[in-house]
């Protein structure tokens, strides 16, 4: 088994023994999806219109909640240091951690989204667009979030600071993800939006591990 | 040329250079600002559609431009700092950030002040204003991060990475916000819609833009001097400075 | 094969140490001495490549550790104050993952043998959380048996170990030194190890 999969497995096993990470993200998503209608009103036509935005923002916030923990525990107990001293590229090991984070915090949202979308009376095609969009978008959130988590590692007020740093960077994914569902609902077709999301995901996958690894080394220097 | 570059890359030498430069730059900025404002407020004709209130664009447009240019300048210094590991580059980047944030805020504020008589609302989700808002958040994030990290070298480097990541994302963000805005066929207002730019208006705006640019340079130089003093405060050359000696003399019993 | 030349480090404005130079050859071990707070841990971390040297150079096999760092890291084993153990995993799981991440042979037999040699027989499958402090330290030190790295940099390895464990650790280190290994160690206790002993005192 390679170093990459060893790190993925370790993070998954650790999360399974504590379970809070998965449950927090899922629970938050459900709560947000329920709170908005309570704040907006039960008129189903209004809710159908705002559903893509609400579900995407909910997924974004839920994914962001667990980012603070991405590197913090490893930093505290010295595991991160050992990873930085490994002859294996730190970018590869970081990519493994990001994959594990997505599997625990992003994938559950993707699976839950169509169920929540039913509450907003979205059509079957809209639900598909929503799910595929989140399947492409949640990795983007994990990848961009990793850079923020690495920069704010060990910093006071890290979690709030992390949110401030990465929310502006999340905007494009949010626009195209929610926009895809809206385009589908208005009959224009979501192909263009989803292609752009896929391109963003690809670019993020290439750059984020490397930038995050560089940021982690900076954090380990002090 | 290289020798001059490396000579002034040392904070000690740059301190003196910046000290000599900034008053002149500030004076030039003030002169240009007076000229530009005079052109904008007294010489430029009253707009056919918008009346006198439009004149705020002579502040709004230049600060909008500056908010973007300053961010690019920060990205430039961040790149230099990360590549060559120079202390001064990090300081220049941090010195520009507050001014950039102020320009972004002024852009939003003057945009709102102009918008109210024009469109009847204090805020419109126009592509440019929304992008400006996100740029403002990027500035705030940078300032928050560099202030939160105690270790100055780490703060400089982390801020540098953030500035670069932000700079590379700004076109993506702008493009996606533009897409978002046009899709909804909403209030797609152009800030110069309905009036052909008179020659004199453009001239006044350019002069104001240069004035703001020079102001940004002057204040960044001034700020870097303060930073240098703070960071090098235990060095002998700082203790030997005439202004420090005078200060110590004044404050010691 | 490890050469340190004119190394200096500052924290903020405070100069921790300057002009540190020494070298280490196979079979030698160097005891880094100095008072608390003088910068021993910072120096060790710098030698591992975890910091950026402002001045001076560290070379391994005549190549700067900054060039081709993977080669240096493949030959290095560093154990600092932190144990780098996950509390919810067992010693076996911890060390297996650790070995794979570090590119070393992490087969179950090898890890079990190492844990047994460090006195943890019967506890290999318990979560690290329930082990005593001494047992946790011995788990972390079991890495020494799994690794084949020639250069060991250990920061106070004998801390919190009882007599038998200290003897076991000395035995492991002696075997390493006799096998052309190198050791750089800090310790407030006096050390008696085989191989050629060097020492360097770090002063402010």
Describe what this molecule looks like in 3D.
The complex is a heterotrimer of chains A (222), B (253) and C (204). Chain A has helices spanning 3-18, 20-40, 44-65, 69-77, 79-84, 90-118, 124-151, 158-185, 191-221. With 222 residues, chain A is mostly helical. Chain A has one domain (3-221). With 253 residues, chain B is an all-alpha fold. Chain B has a domain at 59-224. Chain B has helices at 2-8, 11-43, 57-84, 87-119, 127-148, 152-183, 199-231, 236-239, 242-251. Chain B is globular and about 65 Å long. Chain B starts with a helix and ends with a helix. Mean pLDDT of chain B is 85; it is low at 185-189. Chain C is an alpha/beta fold and 204 residues long. Chain C has helices at residues 40-48, 69-74, 91-101, 108-117, 133-141, 143-146, 163-178, and strands at 2-11, 14-24, 28-33, 55-60, 63-64, 76-79, 151-155, 182-186, 196-201. Chains in contact: A-B, A-C, B-C. The interface between A and C is medium-sized, with 26 and 30 residues.
Blueprint of the fold:
The complex is a heterotrimer of chains A (222), B (253) and C (204).
Chain A: H1 3-18, H2 20-40, H3 44-65, H4 69-77, H5 79-84, H6 90-118, H7 124-151, H8 158-185, H9 191-221
Helix pairs in contact in A: 1-6, 2-3, 2-6, 3-6, 3-7, 3-8, 6-7, 6-9, 7-8, 7-9, 8-9
Chain B: H1 2-8, H2 11-43, H3 57-84, H4 87-119, H5 127-148, H6 152-183, H7 199-231, H8 236-239, H9 242-251
Chain C: E1 2-11, E2 14-24, E3 28-33, H1 40-48, E4 55-60, E5 63-64, H2 69-74, E6 76-79, H3 91-101, H4 108-117, H5 133-141, H6 143-146, E7 151-155, H7 163-178, E8 182-186, E9 196-201
Parallel strand pairs in C: 3-8, 3-9, 6-7, 7-8
Antiparallel strand pairs in C: 1-2, 1-4, 4-5
Overall domain count of chain A: 1
Rounded average pLDDT of chain A: 92
Largest sheet of chain B: none
The total strand number of chain A stands at 0
- What distance separates the N and C termini of chain B? 47 Å
Tell me which oligomeric state these chains represent: heterotrimer
What overall geometry of chain A do the principal axes of the alpha carbons give? Answer: elongated
Segments of chain B where pLDDT lies below 50 for 5+ residues? Answer: 185-189
Please report the number of helical segments of chain A.
9
Key features?
heterotrimer; A: 222 residues; mainly alpha; B: 253 residues; 9 helices; 80% helix; 0% strand; globular
